[in-house]
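Marked as duplicate of an earlier ticket. Keeping the data here for the record.
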Amino acid sequence: MHEFSLAQAIVSQALEAAERHGNLPVQEVRVLAGVLRQIVPEIMETAFDAAKQETLAADARLVLREVPALIQCKACLACFEPDDVFWICPNCSGSRCQALTGDELLLHSVILSDDAGAPGGSEPNEPARGSRGGRHGNTRHRTSIEG
């Protein structure tokens, strides 16, 4: 269950963002997780809930977006989505392949707000603009997370 160490790293980075922006409470944390990381969303949510207790992220919501795997054959440079754990190029049957996407774990954004505020963005997938715009704050990261 590597999700617990990853959740601790995510909360730690979210709290660093909150501190840089005047210790505003963390309202939402958005993470991009590649399928090759084999993260179980339910376990990650449980781990996140445990890691955020008694912090500025205590009321935060975790939004975990799965990134599909895209594999490239090193021999013919064809790109494909894998069907299983064995990466065999459908074009040339080569087995020397590399992941282009699907192995990442990135803190995409941290949405901050004061106690009276509502979520920052007007659209469900759109974070607030600016670093501390009025009652809402948002800070965007593209930081790799290692637990």
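See parent ticket for discussion. Residues 3-67+101-144 form a domain with the hypothetical protein PF0899 fold fold (CATH 3.30.2320.50).
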